[in-house]
Design a protein that fits this description.
single chain; 64% helix; 149 residues
C-alpha cells in the first residue's frame, strides 16, 4: 500500500533454512541418542522386559532401543534422514500411546516431551536432512562432488 513490502526485511531468513534443518536434526538426534544409549549399552534386556510388560512383544524392545540409538546417530549425520526419522516417529508415537498418554499432556511423565520430539521427526520425514547433510552430498548436491548423469 505504501510501497513497503512487509516480508522484504525478513527475506534474508530464507537463506538460513538449511541451518534450521541442522538445528532440528541436532536436537532430535541428541535426544534420541541419549535415550537409546543407556538402553543399548546398559539395560537392553530390561528394556525388552519393560516393553513386554506393556503388552507388546519383547523383541520390539530391542527394535525400540536400536531405533532410538542408531536412528539418532543417522539423524545427527543427516544420513538416511527420512527413514531414520520415520523409525523415530513410530517409536515415539508408541511410547506416547503405551507409556505417557495416561499421565496427560503435562503430568508427571506426560506426553509433552515425546510429542515435541515426534513433531521434530515429522518435520524431517517431509523436509529431509537439508543441504547440510550427508544425504545432500551423496545425492550429488554438495559442491565439488560428482553428479550422476
Amino acid at each position: 500500500m505504501y510501497g513497503f513490502d512487509r516480508e522484504e526485511p525478513l527475506r534474508y531468513l530464507d537463506r538460513l533454512q538449511p541451518l534450521a534443518l541442522v538445528v532440528v536434526r541436532l536436537a532430535l538426534g541428541v535426544i534420541m541418542v541419549a535415550h537409546g544409549y543407556h538402553k543399548v549399552f546398559g539395560g537392553l534386556h530390561n528394556h525388552a522386559q519393560f516393553v513386554a510388560s506393556l503388552g507388546l512383544p519383547a523383541w520390539l524392545g530391542y527394535v525400540s532401543a536400536f531405533a532410538e540409538f542408531f536412528g539418532g546417530i543417522l539423524v545427527l549425520a543427516g544420513f538416511f534422514t527420512r527413514a531414520a526419522a520415520f523409525a523415530l516417529l513410530v517409536n515415539l508415537l508408541v511410547a506416547i500411546w503405551k507409556v505417557h498418554w495416561h499421565n496427560g499432556l503435562t503430568g508427571d511423565h506426560g506426553y509433552e516431551f515425546p510429542l515435541a520430539a515426534a513433531a521434530l521427526a515429522f518435520v524431517l520425514i517431509f523436509f529431509g536432512g537439508g543441504a547440510i547433510s550427508f544425504d545432500h552430498v551423496l545425492r550429488g548436491g554438495g559442491t565439488g562432488g560428482f553428479r550422476r548423469s
